[in-house]
Amino acid sequence: MEEEKKYRKKKKLGSYPIASAVFSNTLALLVIGLFGLLVLHAHQLTTLIQENLELQVYLEKDMTEANRIKINKILASKAFTANKDQVPQINFISKEQAAKEFFEESGEDAVGFLGENPLRDAFILKLKPAYYQTDSLQQVQAEIEEISGVFEVTYVRSLIESINENITKIGLVLLGFVIILLLVVIILINNTIKLALFSQRFLIRSMQLVGATSRFIRQPFLFRSVWQGLLSGLLASAFLYLVLSWTYTKLEDLRLLADEEKMLILFGSLIVAGIIISYFSTRRAINKYLKMSLDELY
User: Whole-angstrom Cα distance, residue 131 to residue 181?
Assistant: First the structure.
């Protein structure tokens, strides 16, 4: 009687061993997740670099306090000015402060040597990342220089152009890797599921011979594929979270690049991807076996 129960349990429709399939699918999703974390941190690093790029807005000499405040308000109202906690990222540096900083850095007293302060009052302005393209920067520069009382607007053009060029190259490389990895993961999960279902091909044919419809045969396999993909996605997400938490404890500076909202989106995407890939791979494999002749099953 015990042997008969084991036999029936083994032959139950859709009850193929899934431990190896879940393990393989989890590893495949984990690879995608690790690369996704790399992309997210690279994007955050790029944003951080851009947010720390600055424009120097030099003012005309003998500027009155009222005119300086007016220019500050104009810059704060511009769409290109970065905001942090609804505070415009504008910093005023007086010519006296600039001369003091120059003396501390170089050890040379330009004011004492020339008899006057050759420097100008200036606003240090941070832009929104969307405006750090070369064309946008030139438009911003021209717009600011049209403001009455502004003498000159400068920025490190070569550095910004180099950053933009490298960001474009890195973005294309990462996009290429993402596409390749997605294809590899889909093929790997598809083949894993196909091998797992291979042992069920005769049972599928037996069900067909007793009059079971294709829908009835597919249903238990598809149901199991959904929770199999869900489990794989959850395991991959949990492992990624543990790896990320451990990494942050070892490299605290890396936490500056963390974006919890995007991390949650990545984990959710892994779960959804696991379900979708597992479902359609199972459906494709089942349809293949349903259409096979008896000779092809051997």
Answer: 32
pLDDT in tens, 18-49: 677 788 788 888 888 888 888 888 778 777 77
Can you list the domains of the chain with their CATH numbers? 2-47+163-297 (no CATH), 54-155 (3.30.70.3040)
- Whole-angstrom Cα distance, residue 289 to residue 201? 6
Distance of CA 43 to the CA centre of its chain: 6
Measure the CA–CA gap between 237 and 263, rounded to whole angstroms: 10
Q: Which long-range contacts (CB under 8 A, 24 or more apart) does 287-295 make?
A: 287/214, 287/218, 288/194, 289/197, 289/200, 289/201, 289/204, 289/205, 290/204, 290/208, 290/214, 290/217, 290/218, 292/201, 292/205, 294/205
Q: Residue holding tokens 């036999």?
A: 7
81 phi/psi in degrees, rounded to 5: -75, 130
Provide the 3-class DSSP secondary structure of residue 34: helix
- Tens of pLDDT, residues 247-288: 888 877 777 777 788 888 989 999 998 898 888 888 887 777
Give the DSSP H/E element, type plus range, for residue 59. Answer: strand 54-59
Give the span between the Cα atoms of 282 and 220, in whole angstroms: 11
Residue type, 23: F
Cα gap 196→194, rounded to integer Å: 5
Output DSSP code: residue 60. Answer: P
